[in-house]
Structures are given as C-alpha cells and as structure tokens.
Write a structure and sequence with these properties.
Strand content: 15-25%
Radius of gyration: 17 Å
Structural class: alpha+beta
Number of strands: 5
Largest sheet: 5 strands, antiparallel
Length: 182
C-alpha cells in the first residue's frame, strides 16, 4: 500500500477477529508509533499490550470501574466483554514530563499521534484497528489496574486484529470544507 492510498482510505475497523498481529507486524506497528513528532524527544507515552489473559485483566478493570460507578447489570456485562472485541488491545497512555518548553498538552497530542500511527501501520498491513476511549480512559481504577501513575492519562484503547468483514470504503471528506485562510 502506498502512502497516498493509506492516507486517503484509512478508516476504523470495529469488527475484528483473530489473528492478532504477528510479532513482526507488532514490531512494525510499535516502531511506527515511536516515529511521531516528539518535541524534545521526551517519548511521553507508554503502550500496554493486552492479548489472551491480558484481555481478561483489562475486562476486570472495566468491570471494577463500572461497579464502583454503580452502573446497572447490563452495563457491567457489556464492560466485561468490551476488551474481547479484538484479539489485541493496546492501551496508549501519556507519561507526562515536566519540561520548560514542552507543555503537557503537547505531550498528550504526541501520544495521540502515536495511537494514530499505530492504527495506520496496522491498516497498511491489511489488519484492522479502531481507536476507542470512553469513560474507562478517564478512570483512576483502570489507571491503577494498568500500573499507571495518577498523573498519567490514557489517550485511547487501540483494538487491533483481522477485519471480520470487508468494510466499504467511506467517502472522502474533502479537507477544504474545514479550511479557511487568515
């Protein structure tokens, strides 16, 4: 896949199945993430990979959070299966650093760019991926279960696997419709 095709046809793939990325594919995906713009080379991110039992552990954290928030039984049941919607989930968290020239917001954006780069890398390999957030990305319970610090911020859960169905290519939204000159 050439760069033009990747950039203009990439889309989220919410219906995913086995197999997950191979080790060499995963290396490519992670290396793509590490190449994003990163002011002062802070590498303000961490990638936490869940497969197999790791998906069960992530589900336990989601359920614990749902129970703590007094959610109903249907929501708790949904939380239990959410991580299993793909054979791999990569949680991307900002690991912020104090720096006189790099504000925290810029570090969050860099971690977001890393997430997007991983999704694009997966897509370029013929895999599917969908970037999800939701309330679990802002949960102290989930942060703790993942071994994150209180000031770390989850920017997304990247679900990756093999597309279960071939999704139709969404129509292109011309970028000029969102553009103005100053």
């Amino acid at each position: 896949m050439d760069a033009s095709e990747l950039l203009l046809t990439r889309q989220s793939t919410p219906r995913l199945t086995l197999p997950a990325p191979s080790e060499s594919q995963l290396d490519f995906i992670l290396n793509a993430a590490a190449r994003v713009p990163d002011h002062a080379a802070l590498t303000p991110w961490e990638f936490i990979i869940a497969t197999g039992d790791g998906l069960d552990k992530l589900a336990e954290a989601f359920v614990e959070d749902a129970i703590a928030k007094n959610k109903d039984g249907a929501y708790i049941a949904k939380a239990k299966v959410m991580p299993h919607r793909a054979p791999m989930v990569i949680t991307v968290a900002t690991k912020q650093h104090e720096h006189p020239k790099v504000p925290v917001l810029e570090q969050h954006i860099a971690a977001g760019c890393a997430t997007m780069a991983m999704q694009q890398a997966a897509f370029s390999l013929g895999l599917g991926a969908v970037w999800r957030t939701g309330s679990f990305a802002f949960s102290d319970i989930v942060n703790k279960a993942l071994g994150l610090n209180a000031d770390d911020q989850i920017v997304g859960f990247l679900y990756i696997g093999t597309p279960a169905v071939k999704a139709p290519v969404k129509p292109l939204k011309p970028g000029r419709q969102f553009t103005r000159y100053l």
